[in-house]
Amino acid sequence: MATLVLTVTGADRAGLVSSLSTSVADHGGSWLTSRMARLAGTFAGVVLVEVPDERVEAFRDGVSQLSATGLDVAVKAAGAASVYAGIPLRLNLIGHDRPGIVHQISAALAAHGASFEQLETRTREAPMSGGVLFEVEADVIAPSSADVPALHSALEAIADELMVDIELTDPARPAHP
Length: 177
Fold this sequence. Notes:
Elements: E1 2-11, H1 16-26, E2 30-39, E3 42-51, H2 56-64, E4 71-77, E5 87-96, H3 101-111, E6 115-125, E7 132-142, H4 148-162, E8 164-169
Antiparallel strand pairs: 1-3, 1-4, 2-3, 5-7, 5-8, 6-7
Helix pairs in contact: 3-4
């Protein structure tokens, strides 16, 4: 079986997931993992599928035809699955929205050798005070050799500069009461 990563985008409408899942099923494939969302009227997602080796080219041709229905699908062979050893961390951020938040946080993580396993961001109206809040929820993996206190300090400095609340925790350790 070939493991493929699909990147999917299209104008949001009913039936997009159905048309993609039909193509996967029609080619003897299995839908494994996905993350999908409607973003400002555009449907976007990433899907991991398995398709029998002998049907990969037919599958590629089939999903390329979905562009006629407004769904663009890019197909890429998945890399070898690996478990990244390191320190699992959970990052939560909330504060008034402003440009550069994701850039500063991701740069601090990268400077300490940490990477995102999962990243979710969103905006919402701030209750009572007005304005827009920006929120980040992320699972992060830091290398075993990482100086986690230094990473905490770097993120605290960013939090002070941007006037946001940032929490970096080890999900394996219970929170203190």
